[in-house]
Amino acid sequence: MTVILLRHGVSTSNTARTLAGRAPGVELTERGTEQAAAVADRLATLPIEHIASSPLLRCQRTVAPLADKLGLEPEHDERLIEVDYGEWTGRPIAELLTEPLWKVVQGHASGAVFPGGEGLAQVQQRAVAAIRDTERRLADKAGRDVLWVACAHGDVIKSILADALGLHLDSFQRIAVEPASVSVVRYSPHGPSVWKFNDTGADLSALSAGTPPPPLPGGEVPGTASADNGNVRHRDSP
């Protein structure tokens, strides 16, 4: 069984440099909408048989063009929803850098619990369970391997990839998952193998901006966001 892990496209929260979490009404930007269309063009030629998605709007908008092309109805899985950041939800990233918990999130993610929200260990447990449960259900129904898509959020996808790679959750910040990126995990009786991660196609322009600081909560690629087009530009750490 093979799952394509798709992160949603650039959102209004990405460009505002805030931590969206589960806040309602976070939409795709014009750039994010373009990315969703491009992802649909890239993936629609594959024999994808199922689409699962976080129920949040930005993920629904991201998978909609692909679902239309494939004639599939996306299944909303609450276990793929964004991290509940609790009191951190909606706050500016620059402000969160000053929080003591910030260092815990970066270096000891398995022990990080967001005030009024959930812990990252809980996130990994529910997200991996969502993938493995869906894998078993599709395999039992089809009686063969099935290629499918799961659309989720940065930290959620990173936690799934860390599990597939056999990494401790404390190392999950070493994984980059950009908006509209594709990661591929193949599950077999012998265990998972990661075929691709953070694949955004032929555009490698982010690599020309120098060495970025560590990933941010939410799976963000660090840097300042260009409000005019939704692109993220790297800068030095503050």
Automatic annotation (TrEMBL):
Annotated InterPro entries: His_Pase_superF_clade-1, His_PPase_superfam, PGM_Phosphatase, Phosphomutase_MSMEG4193_put
Annotated Gene Ontology cellular component terms: cytoplasm
Chain positions covered by the region annotation Disordered: 203-238
Gene3D superfamilies listed in its UniProt record: Phosphoglycerate mutase-like
Pfam families associated with the record: His_Phos_1 (PF00300)
Coiled-coil residue windows: none
GO MF term list: phosphatase activity
PANTHER family: BROAD-SPECIFICITY PHOSPHATASE YOR283W-RELATED (PTHR48100), CONSERVED PROTEIN (PTHR48100:SF2)
Name under which the protein is recorded: MSMEG_4193 family putative phosphomutase
Organism: Nocardia coubleae
